[in-house]
Write a structure and sequence with these properties.
- The protein is an alpha/beta fold.
- Helix content is 36%, strand content 21%.
- It contains 3 helices and 5 strands; from the N terminus they run E-H-E-E-E-H-E-H.
- The chain has a 5-stranded mixed sheet with strand order 1-4-5-3-2, with helices on both faces.
- Strand 2 and strand 3 form a beta hairpin.
- Helix 2 packs across helix 3.
- The chain is globular.
Amino acid sequence: MTETLESLRQLRRRREFLHVANKGDRRASPGLVLQACPRAGAFDIGLGLTASKKVGNAVARNRARRRLRSLARELLPVCATPGYDYVLIARGATVTRPYARLREDLEGALRRLKLLRQQVPQQDRASD
């Protein structure tokens, strides 16, 4: 994939996550929940990841966050609208869902929020 000018800025503070949750819009899919909120005067993409204990033990939560981080780094700079903060929330199926399906879940959520800039060509992935 080509490098884009937009960078992913990591959301770190609780108030940033709460701002997205309270002021933004959300879409749920079987593999993840996407929350998005516009940020005034910003041209980058903010990214936050979270996985609650509902996902599983610490090993499962860490794996879910790693999978979401990889997915976000692959898709958001290319197909998400800049100037927004995005929070990806892991669900129970995030750990076991095939990567291609997680990718479809994120693209579908972006499309339903009307934040999908362009469709990303499918990659040939045999398995996770």
